[in-house]
Specification:
3 helices; alpha+beta; about 15% strand
């Protein structure tokens, strides 16, 4: 059975992917380094935006 990556990730998903704390992920969101959106009261991060963030960090040597 093939698994698919969700189009939108939760904050805990991003925490696990980046191995960061909840507060650090929210810092990235507040600083607009990691775009996010709300569905009702649920914060989501587009999987493509997470990939872009990682790519940019790698290119910038951060």
């Amino acid at each position: 059975m093939a698994t698919t990556t969700p189009a939108a990730l939760t904050v805990p998903d991003v925490m696990a992917a980046l191995q960061l704390s909840r507060s650090k992920v929210y810092d990235l969101i507040r600083s607009n380094a990691l775009p996010s959106f709300l569905i009702g009261r649920s914060r989501r991060i587009a999987a493509d935006d997470l990939t872009t963030y990682i790519t940019n960090q790698t290119r910038n040597g951060n």
